[in-house]
## 1
Amino acid sequence: MLAKSSTELVRQKNSVLVLTALRRHGPLAHTELSDFTRLSSATVSVITADLERAQIIEKAEQQAASGRGRPRVLFSQRRDCGYLIVVIISSDAVQYSLVDYAGRLIDRFTEERPQEVSGVGSFVAALREALDRIVARSRLSRDKVLMISISSKGLVDASEPILRWSPIFGRDEIDFAAVLREDWPAKVILGNETLLVAAAVGRQEENARGAGFRALAALSLGHSIGLGIVRRGAEGDHQISAPNFGHMLHLPGGGLCRCGARGCIEAYAGFYAILRSAFDVPLDTIPAKFVPISELDKIATSARQGNRRNILAFRQAGLALGNGLSRMLSLHESMPIAITGPGARYYDLLLEGISEGLAESHVVRMEGMPELRVIVDEQTLVFEGHLNRALSIIDNDIVRRGASVAELRDEAV
């Protein structure tokens, strides 16, 4: 029995290797799968036959470009094997996307989140209605959805899909598995939005630099301030974390933050903080839950035209960010920093303060200023992070479930 279990575990691991290769590289021929997975040709043949028989992958012929010779046989995911729903919760809206097993987008819509209605009850009701609508629009039954992947800024439970604290709902927790369990058989997962961004940027960096990739930080600027760190592990895997950067202390007894504390980085660098500084509003004023980006654009335009108060508002925000980043580098190591989010559009106004804050770090003084880069399209990164994480979990679950069914069948025989 032990030998059988060990053999089955090896088979599961090899099956996941094949599915992972298809995820990362797209449709592949038999020899390419063997090269990417480092599995023998015979093993690849057995695994692909099993996966094809289970209707997890399929094969298709691709005619040679010259039109001569035998066509190549390519393996790829079977699109209708199952479906994924991605839910991205932001300060002013919620985006819903339906994706097939091959990772292709089928449907998407965005619902604005009324600022005057911020209770958990109304949000959960809207979430349930939207999930029903997105499968109805594609005429799918709920049991075809394998996973619902949700993301938000804030504090996320490490083991359960529970939102512990968020800038939208404050301390009102949401247990997404509990609120959806009655209607949805799908697995529900929850991720910190900036962690997903870091995962996506890390994947892009590794694709570009290969084994030269070591570590990278992703700093998200907007209504909230988030930070994700991705590091390459000893075995080539990615270790990703999202420390509570926006609510690290910047100044003791400083400006009031949305979390209720005083002096947080976000209380100086979030959109509401820049607005407060630009209009010289007292630091103990209760922060606005949402600031239209059009208001920040006006302040930025004025700063670029030479308004000294508005220049100072962005410089103070940059200084808070730079000081926080200098502490992060001191705890970890020097690494490139990707700046993203809606606030990245003000990078030119923030850069002086960021650089001044970073210069306070001993690491920076010794090794020089880290590479700073701007990635404007954060929403695409969040979505890619969802796909990378969720589809990988789905692959593992499908392989394990397939193994369990096979074992039950063998025992019955």
## 2
Amino acid sequence: MPTPYLLLVNGKIIVYVIVCLLQFILMLSVGKYFLPMLGLPALVLGNSLAGIFILTLATAFAATGYGVMVGTLASTEHQAAIMGSLSILLLSALGGIWVPSYVMPEVMRSISAWSPLNWSLEGFYKLFLRGGHVPDILPDALKLMLFFFATMTVSYLYNRKKRTV
């Protein structure tokens, strides 16, 4: 598009972060209101709605930044779809989404600690399961935001290089 790169990317970031937030609200609503209608226990949100919002926002930015980076690095939509899907499957396995990191061998736990998916998951564990508050999740949220800035830097530099060639 004939527009500055930062304007184009900022538009994508705003839209996709809002979509992530809406998806999260929908998931919480299902857990809080729909599951009890089926006779299942309601989702317990923990003690800190502010912590949930901060961590959700940081997770949304990290996911959006990763998506923008994959879209920038890929040459075609098909390539981006494959690269995105496979990398998310791999990162979710390494990050403790498939198998909890506490049952992984020590080597895998060390690898898992470097995964943005693990940072988000651990933050939500702290809020939902351990009764944590905002100070408890700030390190996880900060790591997710640093990941967002790193992926956006890679995207910006790669796009600048691609446009000059």
## 3
Amino acid sequence: MNQLVDAFSRSGCRHPDFAAVTAILRETAAIEVMPRFRCLAAGDVREKGPGDLVTVADVASERRLTAALMALVPGSVVVGEEGVDADPGVLDLLAGSAPVWVVDPVDGTGNFAAGRECFAMIVAYVEGGETVAGWIHDPVHDVTVYGAVGEGAWRDGVRLSVAPAKRLSETTGSAPSRVRKRVADRGAAEGIDVPGHLLQYRCAGREYMDMAQGSLDFARYGRRLKPWDHAAGVLLHREAGGFSAVDEAGRPYSPRAGIVEGSLLVAADAAMWEALAGLLIPSA
């Protein structure tokens, strides 16, 4: 019981202590992730599906995070990317009554396996099917962005905010390659205002970190939105002042349904979202 009290004591009993979860992420990164970075053997990487990689670091990291997070909040459960891969029924825990930790042990596994530094570790704390708090950790630079509903998004004690409003031609955003081509073609053919620079990190966690810190203006994701990629990031981005919604109807993203079918557009504000929606949301 004392451990449970300690986990919530410095956070007003609404969510686990920011520092406690950050410490778990840092320790897991130091023990399970970074020692394997650029040190993977051929047998340490496999495909779960075409182009969908998993490494020994993913598995070991999720195992350690699962044990530590469940111990931090007794009675909680974990929905992790690798756990769902082994048993899709684990997703049903999101609709249950127990508090849920949603975990991506190594987000951007393709980058990690290729020795590229753009990867992250993501944890969301979900109650009643909605994200209450989130953490995204960059193990390479030992930086964590964290936040909770109504409490803002933070890094090293500094409150974060999204990028200020600007013309589309001045923005930088992330989108899949097929969407980038479609936008470029429309801009050239119709002479309309389109984003000035489109790219893709291949790591949603790092994109969400940069959007919350104002160095990336927007991102488009879809069409299967997995909770370990988006539950924490959408919350942190919103707490930094941003706006996001799924599909042209503009419905809010929620991890409650597990894997959500649709296109998620994350932008600095509602006006930018509206300006981008017609360019980025149509299925590619």
